[in-house]
Design a protein that fits this description.
With 513 residues, the protein is an alpha/beta fold. The protein is 29% helix and 27% strand. It has 3 domains: 219 residues, Rossmann fold (3-Layer(aba) Sandwich), CATH 3.40.50.980; 174 residues, Rossmann fold (3-Layer(aba) Sandwich), CATH 3.40.50.12780; 92 residues, 2-Layer Sandwich (GMP Synthetase, Chain A, domain 3), CATH 3.30.300.30. The strands form 6 sheets. Strands 2-1-10-9-11-12-13-14-15 form a 9-stranded mixed β-sheet, sandwiched between helices. Strands 16, 17, 19, 20 and 21 form a 5-stranded antiparallel β-sheet that branches. It is globular. Bound molecules: malonyl-coenzyme A and adenosine monophosphate. It holds the Pfam family AMP-binding. This is AMP-binding protein.
Amino acid sequence: MNLLTLFAIGRERRPDKTAIEFKDTRGPLGAQELTFSGLQREVERWAAAFVRMGVQKGDRVGLYLCNRPEFVIAYLAALEVGAIMVPINLRYRRRELSHILNDAEPALLIIEDEHWPVLDEIVGIEIGPGLTVLSVDRSESWLEEADGKEWTSASRPLTRGEETALIMYTSGTTGASKGAVLTHNHVLATVTGLLSAWAWQADDVLLLPLPLFHTHGLVVGLHCALAMGATVRLRTGFDATETVKTLSSGAATLFFAVPTIYTRLVDFLAEAEEVPSFASMRLFCSGSAPLPAEIHNAFERLTGKRILERYGMTETGMNFSNPYAGPRVAGTVGTPLPGVFARIVDAAGQDLPAGEEGELLLRGSNVFDEYWRAPQKTAESFVRDELGNRWFLTGDLARMDPLSGYVTLLGRRHELIISGGLNIYPREVEEMLTTFPGIEEAAVVGEPDAEWGEAPVAYLVCSCEIDEVDLERYCRGQLASYKLPRRLRFVGALPRNAMGKVQKHLLPRGDVE
Ligand code: MLC
Ligand code: AMP
């Protein structure tokens, strides 16, 4: 099924109801509200403009935008014309942006005015011709040019469920991010699974401060709401005061967030003179990184609400969830969602009995088929069983409770660092650090961090004295700032094994001169 067909079911329930209530928590974009029918009118106007600009079925449309109604409009308009949406992390800098634009080769990129400087640096230089860049802040000018060009659902090119809806870039083990190709059917499987597992209702109102360029905000949040015809209170970012005010005022029923946000809410509420009631809230969800049990319990103590923790991935959408009705166990991600099959295997790929720790493998109609233009990476990410079924190697280490069947995630097979729900691959940071004059070798590891869960720390072998201020300025120009090492440790050499591979577990922890 095409996702637009699913969204039409939600829209037609109550076309005059609010689909998006938007507020810019930072200020400049103000507030805006769109009904489901108003949203569709805008989508059709944008779709007509896209076609006029030459966007064709199968073309990629990149969105380098913060959370704002135009993100939703542009995305749905891209689907209308049969295009594939490529969301781009807004924190990405020149190098990361350039990589995605070269890899996905979008025909159209939609940005905000403030991003012109970085695009001027790369378009026509690092990025080949053929890319049209439009600013959302000047949309009236290019939308007007298409006025009079009618677009209706009858204009839609036939797009089947097995065709691609999204390419979502996710941190790559090889230093550069890779695009997970998601069809309409993949996304639909996650959405329909969650609608039933979490008992979504048309009257639901979701407060959504998470970025729409990641699966959590986009698929779990926006898609479920559009499919159900529920309202989204879309925010540009997280603000504890505003969140508590909205959630306690009766203006929301659902809240989805990452553990760092729950940590901040617990701190905020613990310091409040009086903790307000969250009586209208029927569900608080956490995911994207492990929720510490003490935060889980502290949140319940303060609010009387028990968080539902779930587990997902960009490549697969949502996989596991604690129950909506039933015990939500801190430190676990619950059981597989409808239609998701899971195995836990040892290093040789053999199934392990419940209770033993191994790598989690997944299969299901939610699981992607391939990375964009990367057959080798795709091949390395799947194994086949004796029946020929293809299983995705998640890289997550897990154990299943023999009695309840609940799964606990224990860590990751690869070196991935998850900071506040954002992924950092050490290799990418290491490669960047060694391009700085004087840094000969770098090893980046994740260390526990009270605020972010994990934070990157860099061990450096240098041939001369490094000016840390210069280094930081350099790093900021190269990488999204959440990837910057929080601490630098200067060492004489990196511990290596006989094969020359860095033994990160042997790096001296704590400050070293
Ligand atoms: C922001 N900063 C971070 C950071 N977020 N640093 C480390 N880790 C993070 N996660 C840094 C910025 O780089 C900036 O640094 C400074 O903090 C202020 O930025 P900000 O934008 O004002 O930050 P803030 O609004 O406080 O953001 C924190 C946050 C945000 C937790 C709200 O990180 C967030 O929304 N995280 C969720 C990401 C997400 O949706 N992940 C899901 C992926 S999908 P400087 O130095 O420039 O000032 C997935 C699958 C699944 O994982 O299961 O869901
Ligand atoms: P991403 O690549 O950004 O899609 O992040 C996916 C990864 O986030 C997974 O492979 C897990 O390692 C991690 N993750 C998601 N949800 C949870 C959770 N509830 N607990 C622990 N880790 C999680």
